[in-house]
UniProtKB/TrEMBL annotation, chain A:
PANTHER family: OXIDOREDUCTASE WITH IRON-SULFUR SUBUNIT, XANTHINE DEHYDROGENASE IRON-SULFUR-BINDING SUBUNIT XDHC-RELATED
Organism for this UniProt entry: Streptomyces spiralis
Lineage: Bacteria, Bacillati, Actinomycetota, Actinomycetes, Kitasatosporales
Annotated protein name in UniProt: (2Fe-2S)-binding protein
Pathway terms, separated by semicolons: Alkaloid degradation; nicotine degradation
Keywords: 2Fe-2S, Iron, Iron-sulfur, Metal-binding, Oxidoreductase
From TrEMBL, chain B:
Species the sequence originates in: Streptomyces spiralis
InterPro entries per UniProt: Ald_Oxase/Xan_DH_a/b, Ald_Oxase/Xan_DH_a/b_sf, Ald_Oxase/xanthine_DH-like, AldOxase/xan_DH_MoCoBD1, AldOxase/xan_DH_MoCoBD2, AldOxase/xan_DH_Mopterin-bd_sf
Protein name per its UniProtKB record: Dehydrogenase
Keywords for the protein's UniProt record, in alphabetical order: Molybdenum, Oxidoreductase
Domain Aldehyde oxidase/xanthine dehydrogenase a/b hammerhead: 18-133
Statement: the UniProt record of this protein carries the keyword Flavoprotein: no
PANTHER family hit by this protein: ALDEHYDE OXIDASE 1-RELATED, XANTHINE DEHYDROGENASE
UniProt xrefs under Gene3D superfamilies: Aldehyde oxidase/xanthine dehydrogenase, a/b hammerhead (3.90.1170.50), Aldehyde oxidase/xanthine dehydrogenase, molybdopterin binding domain (3.30.365.10)
GO terms, molecular function: iron ion binding; oxidoreductase activity
Domain of life: Bacteria
Length: 175, 772
């Protein structure tokens, strides 16, 4: 085994200092070292997108990114979405929209689509259906046939919510 | 009493949307080891030796086993025997014994402290394999006697569902139309790879297994027999499953290796396959070659059908046995009036991944074959394809309709209302005539646009399942049922059925599925049966709770039990809302001696078991409009629609979701997905970049209509099963649309209609045009 290398990153606003095997993927470090098991791994080759997280705001296949490459970045996962607390806080408007539109079945791809949708809604809050479909086509779902996922993201564009990172960071970014 | 028939939001969603799902990999046990399976890199070989020394010596490796360590252990049995076929020589051992039969065949298992290390160690296991000739074609290889199975034929057996004097019909029929068609190799490929966690508690002498799905009770019985421990020593716990589609949850070699190694090492063991393993090791499906003949009279009436098929079952017979062949064969004649039918399916081993059931097993294939042959016949006979179907569909005057066949031991009684009416109604709703007119006009402008339709006969609900419903002193209602949640929302549906009985909110009901410590026996989730069979068991169990509650409440309220009505989670005297006791109060009172003295189980506990005496036969129609790109051969679907007779929809939104999702999977099989092999039997689709699921941008709007015109007469809920109707007809409708778009005189030949196949079809059509 090679020498572990130091890694500092923020995950959902919390700072972490780790030493990781250079070959570990970001997905594995999130799941196994940080306990953020909401990020799921469907193919390990970057095709399915179920492991999509945001790194410095950009959607990234966390199975393809080595954890070491995430040094110094801010990572956001599905656990960041619900208000205040991932397990008990109120679902955010995009999560609620998924529920109202029956946009999940087995739910394994859902965290990836939620993070993909979050990135889209931040950058293009008024994205139209064609644009949303183009974006949703980046990831794979085996259950729903996608239409309900597109419906859910489209409905979220009408809520007027910002889907920004946590308020504090948002203010910091503005300042 | 208004929970059934309502599209209530799903109980599953909250945890899944938060990333708080309970998938098997979320189970992490103290001291857990990781299993990595070493798989055969060749398709057919004699195992001369396996050297595990280097792997075992790697720091962090705890154990390495081969077949020698499993000596004396039985092979994995089939779930469903098939009369007249002995599967014994073809069953798969947990680790390859003597020979390997396909690329991916497990030959050794490595246990290590870390998953990365386990993979490193697996790479160090050295295999000495003497390659043997491979067989990759079921039809051509049906007469082989491979030396890896001394004395046995590659032909495992033949399934034959026939009625009427078929040969006599064909000898005298005015018109006979024949076609040769193939369906490619596909699979359900759920997004979550397969996985399992097992832990042996040496003090309690019990094994806990997380991650079983589909048929946990069957898997527990198999595990007990293979490990030589009692069933009651094994606790199977369901976890969330990232899709099944019939593939996930069968008893695979790994389902033995994980608990075996937990027992052997005394440490918890986790196994999660990677995607490439999944694509070569989990069940494949559908690969069949068919010959079909249809006989018609002068008025386009179907007189008979003669079919023969070769099913490529891969290297072994897996747990489904001959189910795919039986369903291909038994329902071959579909929803048509037909006096004689012979449908034979030969099950043949090859050196590819073994096959199993995948959503609409047999029906995706036979609907394509029959419905495509119907379009060919329409052309040959000079009749409109819609009209040809209308002439031959069973109508209300003929239903219920008994086919002189027994399917899985039960007589085949088509229990629908009117197949012709369904077809007429759905064409009208979707405006199919307009689709056809649009396609005609597009073709006039030189575009390659066509339409196709298909009528399907489905089947659902088979065997038995059980449920227990209990109400505690807090009034909390819990339902335990023997099915599994594989994403379809069965937790919600079972809660709705219980909520309907107790007049409570659906979200107040807790549902536990296939927990073998809570419910002693169950059957599982397959064959579109969960709501039909399991849902009925839940209803029966809830009724039993209410029967006792009624007696106890009558005593508490000093009234006649018959005067009590269920309202808002309690019982009250009809017309006297103040005279009421809640279910929690009734539960608390039920422990008193008068109610225990009866010998009944104390408390408010109801148990229900429901046996479906025969399957119910839902039905539907599929419609496609497609355009072919003349430059690339790519097929683009412009429109798609499915109608389906559901009997009664417990949750209409979830039924639509099943239809849409099922249709899109069917589109994958019709246009994109295939597992090709090279001439040495090397699998060529080993990532999701090779095995191409549809993406959002590949699809038209999928329109779905569910009809509740014909409640199933065989079960008290009237439900018909929703899981597979979306998938069953897609290959047929898409093939017919492409055939129409290209104005083919023959057939499309095979599915999937990949661009190169379509280019070949266009070229052969041009050649035909040039010579005639």
């Amino acid at each position: 085994m090679t020498t572990p290398i130091p890694l500092e990153l923020s995950a959902n606003g919390a700072a972490h200092t780790l030493a990781v095997d250079p070959r570990r993927s970001l997905a594995d470090v999130l799941r196994r070292d940080l306990g953020l098991t909401g990020t799921t791994v469907g193919c390990e080759t970057g095709v399915c997108g179920s492991c999509t997280v945001l790194v410095n705001g950009e959607p990234v296949r966390s199975c393809l990114m080595l954890a070491a490459q995430a040094d110094g970045t801010a990572v956001e996962t599905v656990e960041s979405l619900a208000e205040n607390d991932p397990t008990s806080g109120r679902l955010n408007p995009l999560q609620r929209s998924f529920k109202e539109n029956f946009a999940l079945q087995c739910g394994f791809c859902t965290p990836g689509f939620l993070m993909l949708g979050t990135a889209l809604l931040r950058k293009e809050p008024t994205a139209d259906r064609a644009r949303i479909t183009e974006c949703v086509a980046a990831n794979l779902c085996r259950c729903t046939g996608y239409a309900a996922i597109v419906d859910a993201v489209e409905a979220a564009t009408r809520t007027g919510d910002a889907f920004g990172p946590e308020d504090q960071e948002q203010e910091g970014a503005d300042a | 009493m208004n929970a059934i028939g309502v599209s209530v939001p799903r109980l599953e969603d909250d945890r899944l949307l938060r990333g708080q799902g309970r998938f098997h990999d979320e189970i992490v046990r103290p001291g857990q080891l990781w299993l990595r399976v070493v798989r055969s890199p060749v398709a057919h070989a004699r195992i001369r030796g396996i050297d595990v020394e280097a792997a075992a010596a790697l720091p962090g490796v705890v154990d390495v086993i081969t077949a020698a360590d499993l000596a004396g252990m039985p092979r994995i049995p089939v779930r469903q025997p098939s009369p007249g076929i002995d599967f014994t020589p073809y069953l798969q051992p947990a680790l390859a014994t003597g020979f390997v039969q396909y690329v991916g065949d497990p030959v050794a298992a490595v246990l290590a402290e870390d998953p990365y290390l386990a993979e490193d160690a697996a790479d160090l296991v050295a295999l000495d394999l003497e390659e043997l000739p491979v067989s990759l074609d079921a039809r051509a290889g049906a007469t082989l006697r491979p030396e890896s199975r001394p004395g046995e034929s590659a032909l495992v057996g033949t399934v034959d569902f026939s009625y009427g004097d078929v040969d006599e019909v064909f000898a005298t029929a005015p018109h006979v139309v024949a076609a040769d068609l193939k369906v490619g190799r596909h699979s359900g490929t759920p997004l979550e790879p397969r996985g399992l966690v097992a832990e042996w508690n040496a003090r309690a002498r019990r094994m806990t297994v997380w991650g079983a799905t589909k048929v946990p009770y069957f898997n527990r019985r198999v595990t007990a027999r293979m490990l030589g421990i009692a069933e009651h020593q094994i606790h199977m716990l369901e976890s969330d499953a990232g899709g099944s589609f019939g593939i996930r949850g069968e008893f695979y070699p790994e389902d033995l290796l994980v608990p075996f190694l937990a027992l052997r090492t005394g440490r918890p063991v986790k196994w999660t396959e990677d995607r490439t393993e999944h694509l070569i090791a989990a069940n494949h499906a559908r690969e069949q070659e068919h010959r079909i003949e249809l006989a018609f009279d002068e008025r386009y009436r179907l007189l008979g059908l003669r079919g023969e098929a070769w099913l490529d079952t891969g290297g072994y017979i897996r747990t489904h046995g001959a189910v795919v062949a039986a369903l291909t064969s038994a329902l071959m004649s579909g929803p048509y009036r037909m006096a004689a039918c012979r449908s034979r399916v030969h099950i043949v081993t090859t050196n590819k991944t073994p096959v199993g059931t995948y959503r609409a097993p047999g029906r995706f294939q036979h609907n394509f074959v029959r419905e495509h042959a119907m379009d060919l016949a329409a052309d040959r006979l000079g009749v409109d394809p819609v009209e040809l179907r209308r002439i031959n569909l069973l109508d209300g005057g003929e239903l219920p309709h008994r086919r002189p066949l027994h399917v899985f031991g039960a007589p085949m009684l088509l229990d629908g209302k009117d197949h012709l009416e369904h077809f007429d109604k759905s064409r009208e709703i979707f405006g199919y005539d307009t689709w056809r007119e649009e396609a005609r006009r597009a073709r006039e402008q030189g575009r390659l646009v066509g339409t196709g339709c298909a009528v399907i006969l489905e089947k659902a609900g088979l065997g038995h399942d059980s449920a227990v419903v209990d109400v505690g002193v807090t009034g909390a209602i819990r339902v335990a049922m023997g099915g599994a949640n594989v994403g379809q929302g069965v937790e919600t549906v079972m809660a709705q059925i219980a909520a309907e009985e107790f007049d409570v909110r659906t979200e107040s009901v807790t549902v536990v599925l296939s927990d073998t410590d809570i419910l002693a026996d169950g059957s599982g989730t397959f064959a579109s049966r969960t709501t039909v069979v399991g849902g009925t068991a839940v209803k029966l169990a809830a009724e039993q709770v209410l029967a006792k509650a009624r007696r106890v409440a009558a005593g508490l309220l000093g009234t006649d039990p018959d005067r009590l009505v269920v309202r808002d989670g309690g019982l009250e005297a009809d017309g006297e809302p103040g005279r009421r006791v809640t279910l929690g109060e009734i539960a608390a009172a039920s422990f008193a001696p008068p109610y225990v003295r009866t010998g009944e189980e104390p408390g408010l506990i109801g148990r229900g078991t429901y046996l479906a005496d025969a399957m119910t036969y839902p039905y539907g129609a599929h419609y496609a409009q497609a355009e072919v790109d003349p430059g690339t051969g790519a097929v683009k679907l412009l429109r798609y629609a499915v109608s389906y007779e559901i009997g009664r929809a417990v949750n209409p939104a979830l039924v639509h979701a099943q239809l849409v999702g099922g249709t899109v999977q069917g589109i994958g099989g019709a246009l994109f997905e295939e597992f090709p092999y090279d001439e040495r039997g090397m699998p060529l689709a080993t990532t999701l970049g090779d095995y191409l699921w549809p993406r959002a941008s590949d699809l038209p709007e999928i329109r779905t209509e569910i009809f509740e015109d014909s409640p199933a007469p065989g079960n008290p809920l009237g439900v018909r099963g929703a899981g597979e109707g979306g998938t069953a007809g897609v290959g047929a409708a898409v093939a017919n649309a492409v055939r129409d778009a290209l104005r083919l005189t023959g057939t499309v030949g095979a599915l999937p209609l990949l661009p190169d196949r379509v280019m070949t079809l266009m070229k052969s059509q041009d050649d035909d045009g040039a010579t005639t």
